[in-house]
Structure formats: structure tokens, C-alpha cells
Amino acid sequence: MSANDLPQVLGSARTGETPVTGRQTTTQQTATHDSTFLKACRREPVSHTPVWFMRQAGRSLPEYLKLREGIPMLESCMRPELVTEITLQPVRRHKVDAAIYFSDIVVPLKAIGIDLDIKPGIGPVVAEPIRTRADLARLRDLTPEDVWYVTEAMGLLTAELGSTPLIGFAGAPFTLASYLVEGGPSRNHEHTKALMYGDPELWADLLDRLAEITSAFLKVQIEAGASAVQLFDSWVGALAPADYRRSVMPASAKVFEAVASYGVPRIHFGVGTGELLGLMGEAGADVVGVDWRVPMDEAARRVGPGKALQGNLDPAVLFAPTEAVETKTREVLEAAAGLEGHVFNLGHGVLPTTDPDALTRLVEYVHTQTAR
After folding, report:
1. Given the DSSP bridges, would you call strands 308-313 and 287-289 parallel, antiparallel or unpaired?
2. How far is CA 19 from the centre of its chain?
3. Is 23 a known active-site residue?
4. Which residue is catalytic, options 34, 43, 117, 179?
5. Which of 93, 104, 245, 246 is catalytic?
6. Angstrom distance (rounded) from CA 189 to CA 175
7. Which one of the listed residues 55, 79, 131, 209 is annotated catalytic?
8. How far apart are CA 28 and CA 163, in angstroms?
């Protein structure tokens, strides 16, 4: 499939395509129930440790780069056939145990009318940052009609994936708030923290509003067939534990509670969150993602019992020779050997210049080494 073969659906009006509401189990969720990925998330015995990678859909794959050529990121997220092909590419190539829906965490913000764009080499940029109470009015409710293309793409994907689970995802309230308040990516999050400390009531209302939008976005994905969901709190590692508990955790907990009745595994991941792992588990996730800075056995101690863990090979390791990659992978697997449930992943996303063959070899190596 080439970009020219895909319908130009961006901005098309669709009616009658919203997902049905209710706490249903989709055909896809039934088909994937006994997959190694979902079993590991439920802390059940598995035939091998399941593997998937954050940012596996795209970035490092030449077929992805060719397909996306000339198509802006946000536009590509709104073309169901394009999303379907990109999501399937790493499943075909790497034989991973789960697919991750191709999208971006700012898609629901764009869908409700926030003026933003994803600038190449920069990331999401917001035209008018949200910093006052009056600005909250711009954060309206998200409806299924706003993201009809997500429902359509997931329908196409679940038909293709069969017994391979599809992971839906969303940005966590803190990370979305950081982009909105800063106006784009930030190293120090100075405007975000100034609002959080200086006007805690406005901050709480902002995060609560984003929790509602995020919950609605995840519900659309689950009802369209996602077998699990991951909440990305990419920037929350910038906070101290006390600030996280007081100013962030309630909003994240609200998101996890909103989708709890669907019964799909809920994964919580952040970068630089070694000091927050226990609290992130308390927020309501079934699976806690661990970046590469904390060994898996130590992460398990911090999180406590009753949770599966996901992680945590340093993405940069994949640039080393194969023997070194295997050595570091064994270290991760050995540290995870006593866990109640383990999903192998990188400690963050696939780096853009990663050799795709290194990822394929890594999947095969984990499967072989953990075969039971």
C-alpha cells in the first residue's frame, strides 16, 4: 500500500459511525483473551514473555517513512486506512505480541478544537497556551463523533489482527496539561509548575477537565476493539512524589476508574519515574511501565504486589552489537524472572535511527530465551 492508494479522508463528515455505548466485550477482545500479552497483564502463566515496543508503529521503519512521505503527522492520524497500515507494519516485520494503535497523545486535543500542530523536530506546539480560568472553556467535551476516524481505523485493524491484541492509548492529564500550559515541549516545565503551585484550584480543574477528555478518548478505543490501554505520562518524572500524589494522581486515578468496568488491562507509563513507581501503581493501573533507570526486581519492590510490570531495556542499547544487546536483554529478563507478570518492552520509545533488524532479532531472542 502506498500513500497514493489511501483515501483522502481527512476532514470528511461521517454520520452513523459512532461506537455503541455500554460495557460490551468486542469480538476482538474475545479473540485476544488468551494471548500471551493479555495473560501477562493479568499475571497469568504464559508460554513465553510477550514483547511489544513503544513507538514501534513508525519512526524506524523504512516502509513507514515511505508511506508517510509528505503527510503531516496529525493528518496521518486521521486517515483510517493509513493508520491501519502503519499499525500493522511492525506486527508483520517484528512478530511482536501486541499492536499499538498509531496516533499521538495530542489527537483528542486537536479533535476538540485546540489550535495545535506537531512540528517536525520539535513536537506538539500550541498556538495559544492555556494559563487562565477563562482558557478552560476551550476544553470542551470529547464525543465519539469528534474522533470517528479512530473508531473506523480500529475496526479495520481488529479485522486484520485476529488473535493479536491491539493496545489503545492516551496522554495522561499531567503531560497534556504540560503541553497546553507551556505551549510545547519543555525541559523545565516552569509555566506548568508555576500554575500548579501558584493556583492549585485552577490546576486541579484543568487536570480534571483533561481527565474527562482522556477518559472519553480511551472509551472510544475500547468500545472499538482495543484489548488494553496505556496511559502515557511522558513528563511526570519532572515531579517530586509529594507533588505527584497531591496534584496529579487524582486526575490519573479518575481516568483509570472511568475505564475500569470494561475489564481490559490498564497500563501506566512515564519517563524518569523511578521515585513515582509505587504511586503510579496506586493510581489504578493493572500494569506499571518501568523505564531503564530502575532494575525490574527493584521496580517490583517499589510497586508492590498485585501489579504486572512492563519494560525495560534502554532503547540506546539497540545501537550496540548483537552480542551486547543480548547481554543487556538477559539482565532485564533475569531481573524480571520472579515477577507476577512481565511484558518485555523498551524503557521508552524506539529511537528513530534504530536498525529495524535489531528489533526483529530482539523479539526472537526474548521469545527463545523465555520459552516455557
Report:
1. parallel
2. 21
3. no
4. 179
5. 104
6. 10
7. 55
8. 7
Give catalytic status of residue 149 as yes or no: no
Residue 328 — φ and ψ, nearest 5°? -65, -35
Q: Let me know if 68 is a catalytic residue.
A: yes
- 360 contacts: CB under 8 Å, gap ≥ 6: 93, 94, 95
Full DSSP string of 26-75: -HHHHHTTTSHHHHHHTT---SS--B--TT-SSSS-HHHHHHHTT--HHH
299, 272, 253, 141 alpha-carbon torsion, rounded to 10°:
-150
Grid cell at residue 50: 510477550
- Are 194 and 242 a contacting pair, CB within 8 Å? no
The predicted-structure confidence for 307-341, as pLDDT tens digits, reads as follows: 999 999 999 999 999 999 999 999 999 999 999 99
Q: Tell me what pLDDT residue 26 has.
A: 77
Q: Is residue 262 among the annotated active site residues?
A: no
Q: Are 57 and 63 in contact (CB under 8 A)?
A: no
Taking a C-beta distance cutoff of 8 angstroms, is the pair 304, 80 a contact?
no
243 is catalytic: no
Cell readout for 151 is 473508531
Q: What is the CA radius of gyration of the chain?
A: 19
Q: What is the pLDDT of residues 145-189, one digit of tens each?
A: 999 999 999 999 999 999 999 999 999 999 999 999 999 999 999
Q: Using one digit for the tens of pLDDT, what is the confidence trace for 206-252?
A: 999 999 999 999 999 999 999 999 999 999 999 999 999 999 999 99
Q: Which residue has the cell 460490551?
A: 24
For 370, other C-beta atoms within 10 Å of its C-beta total 19
Query: What's the whole-number average pLDDT of the chain?
Result: 93
Give percent above pLDDT 70 in the chain.
Answer: 93
Query: Cα(88)–Cα(101) distance, rounded to whole angstroms?
Result: 9
- 328: which 3 cell numbers? 543487556
